[in-house]
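seq as requested:
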Amino acid sequence: MPVIRSSEAVVHEIHGARFVSYASPRSGSRELCAWRGEIPAGTKAPSHTVDREEVFHLLAGELLMTLDGRAERITAGDTVVVHAGSTLAVENPGGETAVSWVTTSVGLRAELADGTVLAPPWAN
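struct tokens:
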């Protein structure tokens, strides 16, 4: 039984946010990835298009999420389903760090507006 202790989680930082990876192929997961995202106040992540469905659950704080051009303010307890092929932007206009939990399938790729393709290590 793979048990990932919090001390074993792998931390990645990109675009001003912190991603703490718990479930991934590196930790024994075969199909799903899961991580905690920490988005500091004032952070605005670049718009990106994902090739896999993501389930984004906000644990703490508040975010402005723009999905396929539609902006929604979400607060702790809200969940956003991001379908494969959707374009997503995340911004924290609040005064505190927002904390999220994200689950997707192994192999997620994200394409930035400039055509750069990212294969986030926390999802592969």
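The radius of gyration is 14 Å.
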